[in-house]
Amino acid sequence: MKIMKILVINCGSSSLKYQLIESTDGNVLAKGLAERIGINDSMLTHNANGEKIKIKKDMKDHKDAIKLVLDALVNSDYGVIKDMSEIDAVGHRVVHGGESFTSSVLINDEVLKAITDCIELAPLHNPANIEGIKACQQIMPNVPMVAVFDTAFHQTMPDYAYLYPIPYEYYTKYRIRRYGFHGTSHKYVSNRAAEILNKPIEDLKIITCHLGNGSSIAAVKYGKSIDTSMGFTPLEGLAMGTRSGSIDPSIISYLMEKENISAEEVVNILNKKSGVYGISGISSDFRDLEDAAFKNGDERAQLALNVFAYRVKKTIGAYAAAMGGVDVIVFTAGVGENGPEIREFILDGLEFLGFSLDKEKNKVRGKETIISTPNSKVSVMVVPTNEEYMIAKDTEKIVKSIK
Ligand code: ADP
């Protein structure tokens, strides 16, 4: 079987992350990041063959960035392919697919239009994703491209889980409902957990905790997402690095009045100045918070960690209830993979669900590990996420199906 080389692209408003992946085993040939696109001092950092190369060059838009990435990939010194034609397909991460997409799709004009229609639902993300797709189409017109959506995996949520209890017409008129995000990650780690346990995912009730800068939890019942903690936007749910997660909506009008600020300014505070950063007043980075709390005895850092862990704990309990039980709890992303203390803190008191934590095994960082004891009814696991691999796999499957 032919090994496909797939370029995975993740565009932000002024950045572009990429990986060139071999489809057989997920081998990463090269990866990197273009930063400050459209701003001054733009730069590409390219990692390949164990080397890190920094290329400073003006990139006025995403098209310039893609050109620079392709130049780096074919460069005679630090490149990994001889010619652009070796790239068999491109997989694009797209944040919002609305209700139009329940899985990844081959990009054509109709798909691009549907992604464009979702701009109003994700004004900060979808425009950059579209820029990236259009730039690639111009430079590589004959290469098939696939869109992989953050929202798609959660489209299996039942209506009673995704509807907000507000007038129904706001759903039909404005598409206000819960969508959920991090879907590619929740899908990857739940499937991987089933593989590691050597059990069919169709038999398992899995709770996946994606805890990073942005955090969300999903209830994955028999392979399908039936609930997740993020909602209409990635602001709902857990306390995050700088995001508040769920709050009483009346706080918004109250703060507008008290601080004499606009709704937009309040939402900005809820997105950028809240979460563990807002409570601690120190940092949004969990390493800083752990240092402050455990080494310096900082009480507000400790409080921030308590608030964070408490919400994760409550949500795990809620999702066990939603699924009528739980077989597997998975931790992933920056904090979930690398924070033994936080994992222990979250799990403390949840043993009634049917596990006991192996504290030695829980010391693991960033490696696939079962951290519950062997006789636990419920398995608790650390599974590092790999969204790029998942995007490459979906892209390969779709491109092969059309050939
Ligand atoms: P993003 O949502 O930006 O993708 P990540 O999944 O990379 O976020 O997670 C970033 C978070 O992971 C940071 O708060 C960082 O402190 C935390 N993290 C990374 N390494 C460790 C570690 N060794 N111990 C605790 N937290 C860690």
List descriptors.
single chain, 403 residues, alpha/beta, Nucleotidyltransferase, domain 5, eight-stranded mixed sheet, six-stranded mixed sheet, 14 helices, 14 strands, 38% helix, binds adenosine-5'-diphosphate, ATP-binding
Structure summarized in a few sentences:
With 403 residues, the protein is an alpha/beta fold. It is 38% helix and 19% strand. Helix 7 packs across helix 8 (263-272) and helix 11 (299-323) packs across helix 13.
Describe the protein in words.
It is a single chain. By secondary structure, the protein is an alpha/beta fold. The chain has 14 helices and 14 strands. The strands form 2 sheets. An 8-stranded mixed sheet has the order 5-4-3-2-1-6-8-7, sandwiched between helices. Strands 11-10-9-12-14-13 form a 6-stranded mixed sheet, sandwiched between helices. α7 crosses α8 and α10 crosses α11. Adenosine-5'-diphosphate (ADP) binds at residues 212-214, 241, 285-287, 333-335, 338-339, 365. It catalyses: acetate + ATP = acetyl phosphate + ADP. Substrate binds at residue 93. The active site is at residue 150. InterPro entries: Ac/propionate_kinase, Aliphatic_acid_kin_short-chain, Aliphatic_acid_kinase_CS, ATPase_NBD.
Unreliable stretches: none
Q: CATH superfamily name of the largest domain? A: ATPase, nucleotide binding domain
Main CATH class of the largest domain: Alpha Beta
Average predicted local confidence, pLDDT: 96
What is the chains' assembly state?
Answer: single chain
Query: What would CATH call the architecture of the largest domain?
Result: 2-Layer Sandwich
The largest sheet is: 8 strands, mixed
Strand content: 15-25%
Number of extended strands: 14
The helix-and-strand class reads alpha/beta
In helices, the fraction of residues equals: 25-40%
Identify the overall geometry: globular
Bound heterogens, unique: adenosine-5'-diphosphate
Q: What's the number of structural domains?
A: 2
Distance between the termini: 13 Å
* Radius of gyration of CA atoms, rounded to a whole number: 22 Å
Strand order of the largest sheet: 5-4-3-2-1-6-8-7
Pathway: Metabolic intermediate biosynthesis; acetyl-CoA biosynthesis; acetyl-CoA from acetate: step 1/2
Organism: Thermoanaerobacterium saccharolyticum
Function: Catalyzes the formation of acetyl phosphate from acetate and ATP. Can also catalyze the reverse reaction.
Protein name: Acetate kinase
